[in-house]
Design a protein that fits this description.
mainly alpha; 2 strands; 79% helix; globular
């Protein structure tokens, strides 16, 4: 599968629009936190668009480090915290809320560890077979361990929530992850995030559904 600056910028425009609409339709602060997900994904895709430009055209090389770091900040630091936090906030069931909250704290740990990697390890972006690969200096065991923890904190809370349709987020992200891992595992960070971003339309669906249910109750 071939990606490009145009693909990233187009995805950014579409997903950011979905994010703006999601925020405008969200009826409460917890759902506004959820509505930030597509907006943040849009910004992340915009950042990777600039990574593409910096790698393809020498005149844009000066933005490589900043744009790559911006992409990785969302991928490594924002998502392990934001996904379980937003699920925790919108959940009404007390037992499930406590369980999802525990994933939030694991997510904080994952984000801090990955933030350390970003700051103190050499993270380098490059192009491999029409997609971007991010190389960083950590052992394979550590990489695998945090890969599993990352998947748990970004997917499991969506499956635990009783809020209608949140499970779709988890299922879609699992399918995107597994597909990417099986066929193009060395570029999983970039490509999985691209496909996960496209599932952001489900967030809007969840928000609209919640707003509709609130009106019925009122």
């Amino acid at each position: 599968m071939c990606f490009s600056p145009e693909a990233s910028f187009s995805a950014a425009a579409i997903i950011t629009t979905v994010g703006v609409v999601s925020l405008s339709k969200a009826s409460s602060l917890p759902y506004k936190l959820l509505g930030c997900i597509p907006l943040f994904f849009g910004i992340q895709q915009l950042a990777e668009g600039f990574v593409w430009l910096s790698l393809l055209y020498e005149r844009f090389a000066f933005i490589k480090d900043v744009s790559a770091s911006a992409f990785i900040v969302f991928a490594w630091i924002v998502w392990p915290i934001w996904v379980p936090m937003s699920m925790w906030q919108i959940e009404a069931d007390v037992k499930r809320k406590k369980l999802i909250k525990s994933f939030f704290f694991v997510g904080v740990f994952v984000s801090l560890a990955l933030a350390y990697t970003l700051v103190f390890r050499n993270v380098e972006a490059g192009i491999l077979d029409c997609s971007i690969i991010y190389n960083f200096d950590v052992s394979e065991n550590i990489h695998s361990t945090f890969g599993v923890l990352y998947l748990l904190v970004t997917v499991v809370p969506t499956l635990l929530s009783k809020v209608p349709k949140t499970w779709l987020l988890g299922v879609m992200n699992i399918l995107a992850y597994v597909g990417t891992k099986l066929f193009i595992s060395d570029r999983i960070l970039s490509i999985w995030c691209f496909f996960a971003a496209l599932t952001s339309v489900i967030v809007l669906w969840i928000i609209l559904d919640e707003k509709k249910r609130s009106r019925v109750i009122d």
